[in-house]
User: Fold these one by one.
Assistant:
Number 1:
Amino acid sequence: MGISEEIRNKFKGLTSEERSRPATLLKRVQAEYGYVPEDALEVIAGLTGLPLSQIKGVATFYASFSLRPRGTHVIQICQGTACHVKGAKRLKERLESLLNTETGQTTEDGIITLEEVRCIGCCNRAPVVVVDGRTKGRINIRELEPLIRDLRD
Ligand code: FES
């Protein structure tokens, strides 16, 4: 069975209303595969009757969707204005150097994916990182190395 057919089968139990919502379908695929494969975007466009570009737009807008396979752990660094003012750029550069990878990529060992996100609504705790879905506020540059070490343990 090809991946498109497999994905179509996963949507079979959904109501027709659920099937018309791209975000609901994308959420399903993300939960199942850990990312949204290109084929899934096409299947969703076909099911919803919306243009592929619009489905891609939804998938790239929300930080919870990834168009590439992710590592076992995901570190997201907020680059919104409040976090930027509090040194988020330096934190991002430090993470890239510690992980030896660029933002948007996964480490060579496949363990950690580093991503950049826009404001996640915790500006009063800037600068903010999200590690495997858990938000850590007022993150200090010195905390990054132990944080990565913990994820690799
Ligand atoms: S700018 Fe980072 S949480 Fe708002």
Note: Helices lie at 3-10, 16-19, 22-33, 38-48, 52-61, 81-85, 88-99, 144-152.
Number 2:
Amino acid sequence: MQVKFWGTRGSIPVPGEGTVRYGGNTSCVEVRSAAGTTVIIDCGTGLRVLGQHWASTEAKPIHAYILLSHTHWDHIQGLPFFLPLFTPGYEWDVYGPKGLSCSLKDTLSGQMQYSYFPVGMGHFTAAIHYHDLLEGEFYLKDIKVSVRYLHHTTLTCGFRLEVDGCVVVYSCDHEPYVAAAAYGDTPLTEQDKKHAEFAQGADLLIHDAQYSEEEYAKKIGWGHSTAEYVCKVAQYAGVKKVALTHHEPTQSDEAIDAHLHSIQDRFSKKMPGIEIFAAMEGQTILFP
Ligand SMILES: [Zn+2]
Ligand SMILES: [Zn+2]
């Protein structure tokens, strides 16, 4: 199995000299099994770069899958710029939670209404099937997908993908159920333990870590986590690698480095054998 990060930023794209290393594009992760089954998790602006890459390589699937955690802008804005949706011969199955009053397809078409964008979803020429997503389990060819609701400001799904003897868990966007869990060594309680159990034994946990403890104190209820919380989740779940992602748009590469180093200093002794890193746009992780 292979995991590649195409977008690691939260909330809004932030190109510029201060975000060159960790990247300015919003959430997008590609997971590919050894058999070639390809699942794209979230379609932030990183998706556009993935589409350009596929246009220049033979190693692309003809039938692939999209899992949307939710339909906030930073998780769907790449869709109108994703070339494979405008390419006949491609087939896509798109899964995501439905809106409060309409289907996933209708929600996605909203951002491509004429008031916001010149090209509507009717211009997609690939074969596209939309699926409203609920908690549960299903298979995408050889990949087993489990879905669990997260704690965010709208209905949001976390994903657990199992294939080739490996497990990857994606939890963006998510806020601790109990605000105290965002800080220091405060232990996880009931619902946050259940959230951690969803990642039990994962080889890789990709988790929202948008805020520092100081930032979180000012943004309780905004739907995001601290790296401190993610470390406790990882420790409780016994995961092997932790990718901190959905980086705060105001954080430069240097700020992310500094935050990561302080987290590593603070938690590495308590979490022997668990690797913590900050996800970088373009980074690929290979599992044997
Ligand atoms: Zn987000
Ligand atoms: Zn969100």
Note: The mean pLDDT is 96.
